[in-house]
Amino acid sequence: MQWSLILVFLMGQCCLITCQLYEYRFIDLSKNWSEAQQYCRKHHTDLATVSNMTDMSKLFQLENWTEAWIGLNKTAGTNRTWHWSLPGVEFNDSNVKWKSGEPDDGNGNGPENCGKIKKDLSWFDYPCNDADYFLCYNESDPVQKFYLITENKNWLEAQRYCRENHTDLVSGVNQLQDVNLNLTTQECNTAECRLFFGLFRDNWRWSDGSSFSFRYWGAPFTSAAENQNTNNCTAMRKDSKTWNSFDCNERKPFFCYDDKVILIKEQMNWENALYYCREYHGDLVTITNLDEQRWVQEKTKNATTPYVWTGLRYTCTLDFWFWVSNQAVTYTNWASGQDGNDCDMSGAMETGGEHKWLKKNDNDKMNFICSKSAKK
């Protein structure tokens, strides 16, 4: 079967060499937020979801706009949800370290929607406009990952500082359990050391139902993030390169997006999944970087199986892993102990947890992710 499959792969479509997993469209029509949402759902996929700074850059590169709706809004009665500031890191209620009695939301003294951490690494909820020291994380620094910033800033200012000078505020259980973070917090020498980190909560939701936690609010912070007015819809502003909340009845142009990936909830073995994607969509999905990983893993949350097939394949004949789109395997997200080479194995992604990749036997049946080609 190896050689016959290899011929199929080599004859396959290479959409993702030139295509992205999603594409933005600027629509120069003046509509209120609900009308813009209806237009995007009819002609594209939905109002734009913005998941990280890469997406921000893509939107700013589009021409002829100054202010435009995106797909973030809030509805009265929606519960506030805790998130991590760093894109792709998911909050899990089972992995929390609140100090006893926290979160208490100020005991009735006003909303406390941002997190602080003490030297013992216990968590507190605090008003986001409080000014204090904070902790940054730098994923690209080979020597030092964590930084204590001894400047008094509110949570939004701290987030912006970390994003501009490092990667983001310290976020997620893995970072909080790192021994080097504990050493960094000990550098704080104030009498009552409470440091902002990347924990926040809000009741803002994306139009397409995705759970991306990325936010890029402009000042004033309270009006948008702490929900103290009736501006329930979000627009981007090109001059300030930030988001602001507005009355949903205001009329503005808007951003839509076209989704280029789709979750198929049928259960098939890997080879049948490959043929299905190529017949009806484009190909099994290829993942070449962390941003694409985050986009695909968001889709897997609606799967009905513990894993989903991707377009990653190992060939014993040629002794290497490759993507069926003919892309080189440069970025990887293997689970521990899963990066070895085995015959009759293909790559699947976890639909929960950290969404790691695992080797699975080709005959296993599960949901799968297809990419869409332009001609489909």
CATH topology of the largest domain: Mannose-Binding Protein A, Chain A
Percent of residues in helices comes to 10-25%
- By DSSP (H or I, 4+ residues per run), the number of helices equals 10
Chain-averaged pLDDT: 88
Largest sheet: 7 strands, mixed
Counted beta strands = 21
Radius of gyration in whole Å, from Cα? 22 Å
For the record, the CATH architecture of the largest domain stands as: Roll
Indicate the proportion of strand residues: 25-35%
Which regions are unreliable across 5 or more consecutive residues at pLDDT < 50?
A: 6-19, 221-225
The rounded distance between the terminal residues' Cα atoms is 28 Å
Count of the separate structural domains: 3
Name of the CATH first level of the largest domain:
Alpha Beta
SS-based structural class?
alpha+beta
Overall, the morphology is globular
According to CATH, the homologous superfamily of the largest domain is: Mannose-Binding Protein A, subunit A
How would you briefly describe this protein structure?
Strands 15, 16, 17, 18, 19, 20 and 21 form a 7-stranded mixed sheet that branches. The protein has a 4-stranded antiparallel sheet with strand order 11-3-12-13. Strands 4-10-5-6 form a 4-stranded antiparallel sheet, covered by helices on one side.
Question: How would you characterize the overall build of this protein?
Answer:
- The chain folds into three domains: 132 residues, Mannose-Binding Protein A, Chain A, CATH 3.10.100; 112 residues, Mannose-Binding Protein A, subunit A (Mannose-Binding Protein A, Chain A, Roll), CATH 3.10.100.10; 120 residues, no CATH class.
- Strands 15, 16, 17, 18, 19, 20 and 21 form a seven-stranded mixed sheet that branches. Strands 11-3-12-13 form a four-stranded antiparallel sheet. Strands 4-10-5-6 form a four-stranded antiparallel sheet, covered by helices on one side.
- The protein is 22% helix and 32% strand.
- The radius of gyration is 22 Å and the shape is globular.
- The protein has ten helices and 21 strands.
- The chain has 376 residues and is an alpha+beta fold.
- A hairpin with an 8-residue loop joins strand 7 and strand 8.
